[in-house]
């Protein structure tokens, strides 16, 4: 018997496809007293764990010279939204080596995609409304015929 059968974990549809090295902005629902708000947390994905309970991912950021790591369950209902800010180019699955680096050494190069692979939404053509045919005013008849006297 699997744990997903017992707990009924449903995958969160708000989680896009993530990979290590991506810079991600996560909105977490925070409840303070009787108020509820969304708190953003932006960081680099240093670990992704896929498991029976839906898995989790860990983000790392440096705030005021202190490294902060936060782990989020993928199936959590507290995740309001997840936005991939940029895709990082890395060759490791776990980026624990970033903990020992600082400043420029901790930067990750951005993954570039060829223009042929980048899908840009094409603007939809505006619907052409059928216009009724405009009637041309008939030119006044020229007086070619002279009244006979």
CATH architecture of the domain at 3-100: Roll
Low-confidence stretches: none
SS element count, helices: 1
- Which CATH class of the domain at 3-100 applies here? Mainly Beta
Assign the structural class, choosing from mainly alpha, mainly beta, alpha/beta, alpha+beta, or little secondary structure: mainly beta
Strand content: 25-35%
Tell me, rounded to a whole number, the average pLDDT.
79
| Helix proportion range | under 10%
What is CATH's topology name of the domain at 3-100?
Answer: SH3 type barrels
SSE topology string: HEEEEE
Strand order of the largest sheet: 4-3-2-1-5
Explain how this protein is built:
It contains 1 helix and 5 strands, in the order αβββββ. By secondary structure, the protein is mainly beta. β2 and β3 form a beta hairpin. It starts with a helix and ends in a 63-residue tail after the last strand. The longest helix has 5 residues. The model has no long low-confidence stretch (mean pLDDT 79). The chain has a domain of 98 residues: SH3 type barrels. Strands 4-3-2-1-5 form a 5-stranded antiparallel sheet, with no helix packed on it.
Walk me through the topology.
Blueprint: H1 3-7, E1 23-32, E2 35-49, E3 56-63, E4 66-73, E5 79-86
Antiparallel strand pairs: 1-2, 1-5, 2-3, 3-4
């Amino acid at each position: 018997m699997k744990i997903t059968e017992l707990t009924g974990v449903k995958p969160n549809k708000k989680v896009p496809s993530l990979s290590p090295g991506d810079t991600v902005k996560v909105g977490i629902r925070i409840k303070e007293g009787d108020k509820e708000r969304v708190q953003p947390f932006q960081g680099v994905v240093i670990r992704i764990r896929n498991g029976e309970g839906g898995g989790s991912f860990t983000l790392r950021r440096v705030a005021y010279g202190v490294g902060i790591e936060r782990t989020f369950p993928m199936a959590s209902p507290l995740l309001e939204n997840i936005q991939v800010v940029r895709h990082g180019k890395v060759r490791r699955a776990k980026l624990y080596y970033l903990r020992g680096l600082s400043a420029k050494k901790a930067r990750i190069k951005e993954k570039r995609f060829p223009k042929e692979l980048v899908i840009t939404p094409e603007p939809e053509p505006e619907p052409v409304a059928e216009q009724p045919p405009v009637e041309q005013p008939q030119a006044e008849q020229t007086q070619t015929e002279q009244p006979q006297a």
